[in-house]
Amino acid sequence: MPGPTSFAVIVGAMKCGTTTLFNELAALPEVCGSVPKEPMYFSRPGWDDGLSRYQALWPDYDPAIHRLALEGSTEYAKYPDFPNVAERIAAFEAEHGLSFRFIYIVRDPIELIRSGLAHGQNAGWFDGDRERLFRHLVQVADFEQQTTFYRETFGPDRLHIMQLEALTADKTATLARLCAFLEIDPPSPFEIGGTASRLNSAEQRKADLDAAAGAEHLDRLRALKGIYGKVVPREMREQLRPTLQRMAGRVLRRPEPQWRISDAEQVALRNALAEPVAQFADRYHLDRSGWTPL
């Protein structure tokens, strides 16, 4: 069975709802989602190994059903850490006679950076180097710079810009505009359940980490409980209970990650982003009324 030749790629921006958007689009009948969602194919070595290797990311693709193959790799919009992605895709497209369209979703850049700090520190990015992580996130949030490569390489008509805030507020209209860009049928109102749910959020990730840590400690305590009950008399256990509970609370309490943007970081990101974010918003007529002022 022939593999896909028409592709839609969510290139970013990270922490702007790309996972939610991917799931919304992959659920449409004419769209086949990649496995995994973020193959990072064109940002890593081996991107020029041939068409069949790329097409293998869509094992469920059926040309009788699907019109588009979808992937969502946010590394594609993380210049300069991952350079030359647009140029690679253009060369791959020309060599194999393919067609690519690009989707870029944005949000309040301050919220992007705040969420990215939580995500990156929890995941141990850059070996815990917060300063390096912050610089990386400021570059990611420079929407104007990250999209320039796609506008210049493929032309503005093959790049669709959308806002997470719009997707959350009016999913039906926002997805309808996106589907018109992709030239596929939009979902019916009956298939859309109100506002877009947020996946892969910082709050969800922190809750998952807390739950995992709690389960790990609980398993250890259960193993010790039997020994403790046999060695320490019951009366003494009752007397020691309040003290042990306070000690356990101190041991099990997870330190609060340093997610807050410091005053110095606020100044740095304002100096770096105020002008390009305003330029980007004006270019695409974005509503910044709900965004944190830069």
TrEMBL record:
One GO MF term: sulfotransferase activity
The protein's name in its UniProt record: Sulfotransferase domain-containing protein
The entry's keywords: Transferase
Taxonomic source organism: Acuticoccus sediminis
